[in-house]
Amino acid sequence: MKKLLKEIIETINEGVYFVDDKGNKIEPVEAAKKGIMIKPIDSRLNAIEALKEVGIDINDKELIKDLFKVIGLLSNEKSIKLEKSSKRKTYKPSEIKEHIDKYESSGMSKAQYARENDLNYQTFNRWFN
Hints:
Blueprint: H1 2-13, E1 16-19, H2 28-34, E2 39-42, H3 43-53, H4 61-74, H5 93-106, H6 110-116, H7 121-126
Antiparallel strand pairs: 1-2
């Protein structure tokens, strides 16, 4: 399994590559010089197929959740989060004042400013009350 995972990582890191009509990899510039038609291949699709062959369907959210849970339990973690941490962000009064000042001179709506500065809109809006 370790070897397979390393191969999948290498496959993913290939990114998009191009093949000729015989399936041989070829650079677009070389194909253009030779007048050869090429087809783009997304290496992630190959990685997804390799995982499916060993029973791992990345579109099966329940399976992925269970895999992360098993890994977390075995590595002495309570769980491995698939999503962002739900830990609340706290702001110092100086940070709040700085955001308010920047917002007031930005010409943006509150929603737009919050979105562009990665702030929770409700939190940002409360600072004005």
